[in-house]
Amino acid sequence: MKKLTIITAALLAATLLAFAVIAQQTPPPQGGQPGQGRPPGGGMRTGIEALAVEDRTGFESLFDGKTLKGWDGDPQFWRAEAETIIGESTAEKPVRVNTFLIYRGSQPGDFELKVDLKMNSTNTGIQYRSIELPEVGKWILKGYQADMDFNNQFTGLLYEERGRQFLAPRGQMVHIGPGNKKRVIANLRNPDDLKATIKVNDWNTYHIIARGNRLTHIINGHLFSEAIDDDPAGRSMGGLLGFQIHTGPPMKLELRNIYLKNL
Q: What is the pTM of this model?
């Protein structure tokens, strides 16, 4: 027994010595200290590319920059001008009912949409997975809306035009159950902090991701709201895209860099 104990101790000592030699020969991780798996400053190498708001790889342009080809809206409000789509109401041409410029090229289900928007008054929104309501009037849509308003009270939230209305407030992730039962499941970020990232009367990049029943709104690279829609009677899994001119005071909406990627 004593002999076995001596042999065991010798083997343990040899093993520890081998590990010590390997540790001395192994260089520390690049950019960090020995024993650390991350660079200085608390960063971490994840292999994930940095955010690029302007990246449109795999996207298809929905606007030729010159005409409204593929789009359908009331010509007294919508026009193409200088690489921009403009929706404009005036005191002489007010909007009596919310009206939309509708994309006729497809009715996407799962997709990503990126668009630059600029507005000087009132309220607008990006319609998606929507349907037309000809019984209400021409160029009228019902469906999901990525909201935006000049005072930025509603910008970034998920609204359902002519439907269930407010679905996911800015700064929150919401689960929508059967019967439109809504429940906040996560706080994403302080709503006022998100509001501070919006450029007033200037260009903002709106990014919408619709994948299955999960709907995500991103503005200027910041996650504004997200919803999981498990309400089978209320949700939509595909439909029309469109842009809104809202009733109210005269307004000018400008749109450029309209890109779509089907998922």
A: 0.84
